[in-house]
Amino acid sequence: MKDPRTQRLSHSAVTGGKTHGPPPVEPIPPPEPHGEEEQTEEEEDADDEGHGAPLQLMAEFLRAVMDGDFQLASKLCQMILIYEPENPEARQFLPLIQEKLLEGESTSHF
């Protein structure tokens, strides 16, 4: 008969068995764009221009209104409406700007 201590050692060596590590991990591929590739900022600006008034035009319009340059604001507002006939801000501002221009003309005659 074998010594139980020796048997226990060999049994524990067998039960521990071969150490298994986690299975190899494959890198996850980056998500593929759905028909849209990344665009540069310039390309995005060019795309925006096709869908509405250029942002620079909108910014100049707002600056003219804030500065009280209603003559320029009126022209810029009309240009915005050429790009976007349904632009709510331009549609609301235009009559107000024209009213300010009329007020300015009536006070300059006195």
From TrEMBL:
Region of interest (Disordered), ranges: 1-54
Protein name per its UniProtKB record: Glutamate-rich protein 2
Organism: Myripristis murdjan
Acidic residues composition bias: residue spans: 38-48
Biased composition regions of type Pro residues, renumbered to the chain: 21-32
Lineage: Eukaryota, Metazoa, Chordata, Craniata, Vertebrata
InterPro entries, per the entry: ERICH2 (IPR026703)
